[in-house]
């Protein structure tokens, strides 16, 4: 970015200290940031013939008042004002809600301009703006900016005009002419002019297309450059292990590996053998067999004389993984230890000492693994499970416990391709897209709240067969804001219903870690038959005997989360069921319930979830590493994202990109981001 763009906003004529402070509140400090600030929508004052305007489309209509306004009141302080208007050859009704003061201003035969939503069936405009006199002599399209008091949209339009007149010719264009020609992109100056002062919708479309491509390209360049630096400069551990012993271990497994597992294991072992540090994301749907893949990688590390660490989000999951690995490695000389906050006193001291001496090959634990005092003798492989639940900082601390160990991140949250290449563009991605043979599909049903007694009868049938059930609720206690059945109420209801027959447990986020542990242990040992819980149960519990998953107020959950919860059942030999109890009011809510009953593929669900909810809420955590784009949306603009990624990969691997003058603008943007600074590689 050149000097003109880096000047403070006070360099713009008409911006004083007070306005500068107000702009700073919305993240604008420099001239460049002001010019780059995008409107979030546009008001279209272009007049169209009502014959071609679609139902519920926004419209601007100029005409003459044909009938005196009629004002009616309803409810507390609510009003409806209506009048007839002759617009060209149409006699239409204009309705204004809660603006009674307009009655005195509207006069017969007066020219008015109405902006509102067109109800084609009733020949009515629901007006949200009424202007007296003819339509304004504007381009027809006016930008609307997101502002906070004391700023107004009008002020922002004025400031943009001043900034553009003063600094418009100094706007640098980082895109080389060859790329602009290849995609017929307008230059940066023209794009920003059309963004703020569009003359036509087509001009605005071309401006956005150009700005989205540039934004995605710069982001992908950072990702690809980061990937290249990590590969070229961060020499990792070279694992050298006996193929014979590894093959013997694989052939001794009590089940047949799927083709997907074999392919993914091959990709991981190739990374481990190479001198470059592995940085790989393993995606696998619930039940696709990620644990076995992790076990093979950990075994390969142990055979190479290195230690492996597996970090998981909960103590219960850590214990389950430790047990599973102990069973898998029963016939080998691999030593396994568990390290969680519950491991205390002498036991903890012993584990820490053995880790430092190197007598422990594999340690499974929670964030306790990254605490001070945990020293490894020779850490060569770090695996994190449900990686998006750990912050970037936590993962970095674990990596630094060794000298550039190989890193494998695992997740059972299927991440759609568009998000994977956005959030994890600096990583290699492996996908387990095949389920182990014999795993039964969980049958999913959607029922309404009034059918709850039938659901309870169904649960009882399964309990009589010796099975168990989960009942998941969105909230712990009653909320005035949401009419949501809560865990405590449901627990009371079930205790009453099954009194004397079955034991009902309750689990939620306000219980202490020890209390949660006790409840989960009782459930996994079948001392609790029905577990009523909030979503704390979502990750990390394996109870093969549980065959029913009931999700109360299911419309409150995203598809990805519903799928995760459904994955808690169907882990044994018996047929399992997922029952969604929901009365969704919106079409989107109903569509989500339908999708859940029809689709078992987590990746398909994840794509649908993304379409319905957008990327912001997909992970449900700020620590996911997802960037917030100014112009583009990775979901709706995924084609541009794919093109930008392909171009970025080509550029970064070409010598010309790093030396030719044509790419100086892109290189300057990369350097300005700080991502190429070795200090910030993490």
Automatic annotation (TrEMBL):
The keyword DNA-binding applies. It comes from the Bacteria. GO terms for biological process: DNA recombination; DNA repair. InterPro entries: ATP-dep_DNA_helicase_RecG, DEAD/DEAH_box_helicase_dom, Helicase_ATP-bd, Helicase_C-like, NA-bd_OB-fold, P-loop_NTPase, RecG/Mfd, RecG_dom3_C. Transmembrane segments: none annotated. It catalyses: ATP + H2O = ADP + phosphate + H(+); Couples ATP hydrolysis with the unwinding of duplex DNA by translocating in the 3'-5' direction. Plays a critical role in recombination and DNA repair. Helps process Holliday junction intermediates to mature products by catalyzing branch migration. Has replication fork regression activity, unwinds stalled or blocked replication forks to make a HJ that can be resolved. Has a DNA unwinding activity characteristic of a DNA helicase with 3'-5' polarity. This is ATP-dependent DNA helicase RecG. Keywords: ATP-binding, DNA damage, DNA recombination, DNA repair, DNA-binding, Helicase, Hydrolase, Isomerase, Nucleotide-binding. Its EC number is 5.6.2.4. PROSITE patterns: HELICASE_ATP_BIND_1, HELICASE_CTER. Belongs to the helicase family. RecG subfamily. SUPFAM superfamilies: Nucleic acid-binding proteins, P-loop containing nucleoside triphosphate hydrolases. GO terms for molecular function: 3'-5' DNA helicase activity; ATP binding; DNA binding; hydrolase activity. It is an enzyme of class 5 (isomerase).
């Amino acid at each position: 970015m050149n000097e003109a763009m880096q000047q403070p906003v006070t360099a713009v004529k008409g911006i004083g200290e007070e306005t500068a402070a107000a702009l700073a509140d919305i993240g604008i400090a420099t001239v460049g940031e002001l010019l780059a600030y995008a409107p979030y929508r546009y008001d279209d004052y272009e007049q169209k013939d009502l014959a071609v305007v679609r139902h519920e489309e926004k419209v601007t209509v100029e005409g003459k008042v044909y009938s005196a306004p009629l004002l009616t009141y309803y409810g507390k302080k609510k009003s409806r004002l209506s009048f007839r208007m002759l617009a060209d050859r149409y006699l239409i009704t204009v309705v204004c809600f809660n603006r009674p003061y307009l009655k005195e201003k509207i006069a017969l035969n007066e020219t008015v301009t109405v902006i509102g939503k067109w109800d084609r069936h009733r020949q009515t405009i629901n007006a949200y703006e009424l202007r007296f006199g003819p339509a304004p002599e504007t381009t027809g399209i006016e930008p609307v900016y997101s502002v906070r008091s004391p700023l107004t949209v009008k002020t922002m339009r004025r400031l943009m005009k001043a900034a553009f007149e003063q600094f418009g010719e100094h706007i640098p264009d980082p895109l080389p002419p060859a790329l602009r020609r290849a995609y017929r992109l307008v230059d940066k100056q023209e794009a920003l002019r059309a963004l703020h002062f569009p003359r036509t919708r087509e001009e605005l479309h071309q401006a956005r297309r150009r700005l989205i491509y540039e934004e995605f390209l710069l982001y992908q360049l950072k990702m690809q450059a980061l990937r290249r630096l990590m590969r070229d400069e961060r020499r990792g551990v070279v694992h050298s292990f006996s193929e014979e012993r590894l093959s013997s271990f694989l052939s001794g497994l009590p089940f047949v590996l799927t083709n997907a597992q074999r392919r993914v294991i091959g990709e991981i072992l190739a990374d481990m053998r190479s001198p470059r540090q592995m940085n790989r994301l393993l995606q696998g749907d619930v039940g696709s067999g990620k644990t076995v893949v992790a076990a093979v990688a950990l075994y390969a590390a142990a055979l190479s004389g290195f230690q492996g660490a597996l970090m998981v989000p909960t103590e219960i999951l850590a214990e389950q993984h430790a047990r599973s690995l102990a069973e898998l490695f029963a016939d080998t000389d691999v030593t396994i230890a568990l390290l969680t906050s519950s491991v205390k006193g002498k036991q903890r001291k012993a584990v820490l000492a053995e880790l430092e001496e190197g007598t422990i090959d594999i340690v499974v634990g929670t964030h306790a693994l990254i605490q001070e005092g945990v020293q490894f003798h020779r850490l060569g492989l770090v695996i994190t499970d449900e990686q998006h639940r750990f912050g970037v900082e936590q993962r970095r601390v674990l990596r630094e416990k060794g000298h550039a160990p190989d890193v494998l991140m695992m997740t059972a949250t299927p991440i759609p391709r568009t998000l994977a290449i956005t959030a994890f563009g600096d990583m290699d991605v492996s996908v387990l897209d095949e389920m182990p043979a014999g795993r039964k599909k969980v049958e999913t049903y959607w029922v309404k709240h009034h059918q709850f007694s039938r659901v309870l009868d169904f649960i009882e049938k399964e309990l009589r067969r010796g099975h168990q059930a989960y009942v998941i609720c969105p909230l712990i206690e009653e909320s005035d804001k949401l009419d949501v059945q809560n865990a405590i109420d449901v627990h009371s209801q079930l205790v009453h219903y099954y009194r004397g027959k079955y034991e009902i447990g309750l689990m939620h986020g306000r219980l202490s870690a020890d209390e949660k542990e006790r409840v989960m242990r009782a459930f996994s040992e079948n001392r609790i038959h029905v577990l009523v819980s909030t979503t704390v149960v979502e990750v990390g519990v394996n109870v093969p005997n549980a065959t029913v998953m009931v999700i109360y107020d299911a419309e409150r959950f995203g598809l990805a989360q519903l799928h995760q919860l459904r994955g808690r059942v169907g882990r044994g030999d018996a047929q399992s069921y997922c029952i969604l109890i929901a009365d969704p009011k919106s079409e989107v809510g109903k569509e989500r319930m339908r999708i859940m009953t029809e689709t078992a593929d987590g990746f398909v669900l994840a794509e649908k979830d993304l379409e319905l909810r957008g990327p912001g809420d997909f992970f449900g955590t700020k620590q996911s590493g997802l960037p917030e784009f100014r112009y583009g949306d990775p979901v709706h603009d995924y084609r541009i994202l794919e093109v930008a990624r392909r171009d970025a990969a080509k550029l970064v691997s070409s010598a010309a990109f790093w030396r030719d003058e044509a790419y100086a603008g892109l290189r300057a943007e990369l350097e300005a981001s700080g991502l190429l600074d070795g200090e910030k590689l993490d």
